[in-house]
Specification:
The structure is a single chain. With about 500 residues, the protein is an alpha/beta fold. It has a domain at about 10-160 and about 385-405: NAD(P)-binding Rossmann-like Domain (Rossmann fold). The chain is about 30% helix and about 20% strand. Strands 7, 8, 9, 10, 11, 12, 13, 14, 15, 16, 17 and 18 form a twelve-stranded mixed β-sheet that branches. Strands 3-2-1-4-5-6 form a six-stranded parallel β-sheet, sandwiched between helices. Helix 5 packs parallel to helix 6, helix 6 packs antiparallel against helix 11 and helix 9 crosses helix 11 (about 405-420). The longest helix has 19 residues, at about 405-420. Residues about 1-20 have low confidence and may be disordered.
Amino acid sequence: MNTPQLSRRTFLKTTAVAALGFPAIARSQSPNSEIRVGIIGFGGRGQSHISDLLKLNGVKITAICDVDDRVLGKEKEAMGKRGQAVETFTDVRKMLESKEIDSISTATPNHWHSLIGVWACQAGKDSYIEKPISHNVFEGRVLVEAAKKYGRIVQCGTQSRSTVGLHQAVAWTQAGNLGKLLWARGTCYKPRPSIGKVDGEQPWPAGIDKDLWFGPAAIEPLMRKKLHYDWHWDWNTGNGDLGNQGIHQMDIARWFMGEQTLSPKVWSVGGRLGYVDDGETPNTMFVVHDYAKAPLIFEVRGLPRSKEQWKAEKWGGPDMDQFRGHAGVGVYLQYENGHVVVPDYNSAAAFGKDGKMVKRFGNYAAPKDGTDPGKPDNSGQGSHHENWTKAIRTRKAPELNAEILEGHLSSGLCHTGNISLLLGSKQAPGAILEKVKGNKEAADSYERMAEHLKKNGVDLEKEQLTLGEFLTMDVKTEKFIGNAAADKMLTREYRAPYIVPAVA
């Protein structure tokens, strides 16, 4: 008989959950049952979560949670005007104890993502975790294991994975229509003006629970003008533009490449140049993920095309650089017999060696020269939350377009690129060029970066770039080889009681 073994499993699961104060809830979803969702964090991306979920039949938002009393009260009022009665929470742990929710959709700052996801799994809730799904590699892997252990449906918020056009483009290129992939390059040329420089510690904003806001991160003095959003540029809570925007483009590039591990070799070059402010993360950077089949290179530029644009308070659009005439934020993949451009989350186009378009996907515009290769299936942007809720009903994680392992790997590419930079040292431009010149594509990225900075009035002999550590990883264990300092940065010192638990 199997009864003793089943009882033991149930006992272990129940006691593990109870240790965190969560009841062992695992409400089954029939195809016709209502999915009750709790929203956590809605100052920015969370608003999109609310909007998307309200459009879905059979889905009801029953609770909202935010550590900011003002934001929480405002959203409760807004939901009331929509005819949606919701329960409010300040502490996510209290929300996860509720029997009135089956799943959560969260868009908190990065340092909270994995812990909320793990807690949700242990509390028997399915979850939608905004990108990046982690603040470091260790906790991302824990979330993957938690989803598997507790049988939860966990979607990563890389919404491009739910677009018909990109699915078609990936399948078309992987079928060999352009031959072998030579390299992939993602770009985030996105305006990031100075966040300002404060003189000393700033007062903590009223109505925000400081302990809950920091959660698993160290509690630090507020040394910037804005608490919200600018946490992206503080290493304690954010991951710079690699984790903010670059996660999307690196995920798309890795999807095309078909890579299902972190990169075996990684290194980077970058810095925060052009102004002095309270931000810590680089506004200019490139990362090389040296996969065996082809390299994935990612470039970040927060400064405009040149110093001429500095007179404008905000930069954007034509003020920013482009890569080979294409969008400032996008992906460019070079193949033996042509290239593919992905300028946004839902379209792409393939070009032959002669530069003429041979295929377009999604809503990519037809060429103006009249050589339209044919109208694509313009199904546009799919609903990422709808895909998630469908998988909740079927209980089949493989039906997710961005299953949590995909989110972990693409988030991990952001983290390992940042680790390389954080372990590096400032170098003169000649020394960096000497180090990178053996890699054709990396040298190209560096030389264009140096020219970009020169146009912005940056003297690299005085404001030097950091040459990151060259790191090698065992992709099976997700540990670096022969570098204890780098391994230490794969995780963090967690602050009790907000500790990401190891999930065996």
